[in-house]
Amino acid sequence: MSKTSSMRGRINRRTVLAGTASLIAAPWISSTAQAQAKQVNIGVIMPLSGANAQFGINSRNGIELVADEINAAGGIKALGGAKINLIVADATSTPTTAGTVAQRMISQNDVTAILGAFASSLTIAISEVTERRDIPLLTMSFADQITGRGYKNIFQVVAKASALGKAQLDYTVAIAQAAGTKIDKIAIMYEDTAYGTAQAGGLRAAAKAANIELVMDDAYPLGITDTTPLINKLRASGAQAVFPVSYLNDSLLLIRTMRQQRITIPAIGGAAGYVIPDFEKGLGEFAEGVLSIAPANYDLDTGLTDRFRKRFGYFMVHEALEHAVALDVLVQAIEKAKSAKAEDVTMALRGGKFTGGWTNAMTGGAVQFDSTGLNTASIPVMVQWRKKELVTVWPKEVAKGAAEWKS
Question: Which among 264, 214, 256, 212 has a CA at the least distance from the CA of 235?
Fold first, then answer.
């Protein structure tokens, strides 16, 4: 067998865009894919390099799993069995690059829709492009701004950041109360990004509504290298619980510094860096018992999510799950529209209710977008690290275990 033939035998169905580089097409398109006239191009723009690379890889894995399953089951029925062709691009972790990549992807490819890009700042940059080009963008990014600008082509499959922040506080108060503790004073530490700022706003508003004193309310720059001043301020604040909102590297540094300094008050993370395997791997015993809000969790439907674990070797993190849901919903919309034209799919997405399939792993058991593109069926959950797994502990009606609270 020739080297070329051997390569073709190993090639998968993905077309790849790397960063801002040109489209790498020929080496990555299999002879089978070239022979198939029917395919639907779906763009995937994720941070596959830089500070948020692991989140982007997780998200891509979830999307690939669903695409492969749909293709193996006969493709998109309404389009005669058309197969999904993912065009994957690296947004890096820089908003300017993300926007440039989106522009190039749309210009060089006939894409029906785009999925991405985990970090809210990246998604906002991409949405500026997709809105101008009338391409639907489905995302699990949190920031309120995503669906708060009156855009017609954006669809947010999770609750927005302010709602997550409110639930982060409200659920914590309920969990503490159930354990016999009344919370009067809290601390917030958040990165000064679109995600961190919006979620901190939800926390702040919820604390005010609950008449809880905010004894610390500090923003810090993404990628902070010395958290000692923040932790010293936390120690002196008298807070009964701390609410850090951050991505992975910052979350590891914050929690490690707290525990090394013997600050043992409950820490309730803001999803992102607090709900992926790397958090537990990076902290070891310090991760045990850490709570976090999340838009969804894999234990809500292990019949679905165990397929991810079997394929990739780790539990299905929420960004993988929610991007899987985004692709499932997109395909449902294509089936409904009986068309892969972007404008037809956008119309099918807007106002439609999508059930079954991967939507069963969401708390609402469905996805339904309002006029802004926000999924109104999404309800956040509280999860807790237990023996290297994340257990849903609140609300009670979906909990898989009782919350442990140590005041």
Answer: 264
CA distance 380 to 378: 7
CA 151 – CA 124 distance, rounded (Å): 11
pLDDT score at 329: 98
Q: What is the DSSP letter of 18?
A: -
CA pseudo-torsion sign 11, 48, 54, 118: negative
* The pLDDT of residue 351: 78
Spatial strand order in the sheet of 185-191: 213-220, 185-191, 241-245
Structure tokens at 82: 């058309």
Q: State the pairing for strand pair 268-269/241-245.
A: unpaired
Side-chain-facing half-sphere of 3: CA atoms under 13 Å = 1
In this prediction, residue 235 carries a pLDDT of 95
Residue pair 299/390 in contact (Cβ under 8 Å)? The answer is yes
Cβ count within 10 A of residue 198: 24
Both tokens of 92, joined, read 């890096």
Helix (H) or strand (E) holding 169: helix 161-178
Tokens 């080009």: give the residue.
133
Q: Do residues 76 and 335 touch, judged by C-beta distance below 8 A?
A: yes
Q: Report the amino acid identity of residue 84.
A: I
Kindly report the CA angle at 333 between 328 and 334, in degrees rounded to 5?
100
Q: What is the pLDDT of residues 309-346, one digit of tens each?
A: 999 999 999 999 999 999 999 999 999 999 999 999 99
Place of tokens 């489209």: 23
Virtual torsion, Cα 269, 271, 272, 273, nearest 10 deg: 40
By residue count, the chain amounts to: 407
Alpha-carbon distance of 213 to 206, in angstroms, equals 11
What one-letter code names the amino acid at 229? P
Q: Residue 228: count other Cβ atoms within 10 Å of its Cβ.
A: 10
Cβ(382)–Cβ(291) below 8 Å: yes
d(CA 65, CA 319): 13
pLDDT in tens, 123-151: 999 999 999 999 999 999 999 999 999 99
> For residue 195, what pLDDT is reported?
85
How many other β-carbons are positioned within 10 Å of the β-carbon of residue 24? 12
Which segments in the chain show pLDDT lower than 70? 1-37
End-to-end CA distance of the chain: 66
**Burial of residue 365 (number of CB atoms within 10 Å: 0-12, 13-18, 19+):** middle
